[in-house]
Amino acid sequence: MKKICVIILLLLLLVPGVSAADLPRWGPYITSADEDTVTIHYYLYENASGAVELAFRGNTTVFSSEPAGFHHIRIKDLMPDTEYSYRILVNDSWSETYSFRTLGAENYTFVVSGDTRSEPPFTQAERHGVVAASILNENPLFVVHLGDFSGDADDPAEWDRFFSAGRNLYANTIIVPVQGNHDYAKLYTDIFGMPDWYAFTAGSLKFLVLNTNGWTQIRFANQTAWLGEETQSPETKIALFHHPFYTTDQKRTGLTTDQIPVWQEIFENGGVAAAYSAHMHAYERHESGGIAYVTNGAGGAPLYSPVTKPADEMVTSIYHTLGYVRVDVNGSEFTSTFFSVAEVSEDNSVLTTVFPKGTAYDVFSTTDPVSSPLGPGIIFGILSGAVFFIRRKR
Questions:
Q1: What pTM does this model have?
Q2: Which CATH number applies to 2-101?
Q3: Bond from prior residue into 28 cis (ω within 30 degrees of 0)
Q4: What ranges in 15-114 are assigned the alpha helix state H?
Q5: Contacts of 356 (CB under 8 A, 6+ apart)
């Protein structure tokens, strides 16, 4: 039996490289829950055998799977904070080589994006694709997608557009999926295979992936109890969920106004430093109870203007601008920056401006005593001017 397995592995290693026509329908894309494990996924047009060839320091190992459309190949016993390269078997041919790094570093970068669905007259390639290409340049350890991957999660053609627009990004980094209101479908579960809510740790930070969708309302008590237990640990925490607690968008359909304070109290008592949401297709930042509430639904979906007066907790906002949030982690501290990628016309029909790489709009850090889109230098200048003016008046 061992001889047969060795022969099969040798034959797999001799398979020629994949042509463009033999790309998988979706993927590859990577999910992970800990430092020594990843799952590499891909989906074929027809049922066929699958495999992942993992390479590290000149050594290769092949992990195979039975004939199927979906291949979810779980790879264990990896080393933390280590870069691996890999390729996948598609129609008896090997793909090009991709890479990823396992969790485990204390200092790293991750990116937060969301709401990548398209809507006529534009496609995912024209909006999500532009944002995904910018994110790829950041070389993040992982990418958090805050939900609404497509307009209709039951429609395979919608997922064709999603994976086509972000193919290079999702093949070369770990994706952390958060379920949005457009993602209620068995196909979403088939694609990611993640529970409705879950937690993971990366370095000294703990991430809480929550589900604020209406269909989880009957299990709100269960999710709240789980949240309470997960926030008992001492790490600094970041919460991730689709519907924002604070928003200028009236059609928020997440937790009820009675439920939101319950979670906010848990956040404030449980070491949550920031919460990232989407749903409102813009960038907004609020602060309440010592927590930064960031909304970033500017990943490619039709962009919105505010329809209600901003809450008193509002710090800053930017509308009709595609972009992403880069979070630079240093131990238990982090700096969060929103980068503008492109400005979109008021009618959402065209990109009016593509910004230079590194165009930062809003920055805040857990080490800053004052958070402002203006930055500490400008704040100091304003305060100094105010003091000078007061002294003159005296």
A1: 0.89
A2: 2.60.40.10
A3: yes
A4: none
A5: none
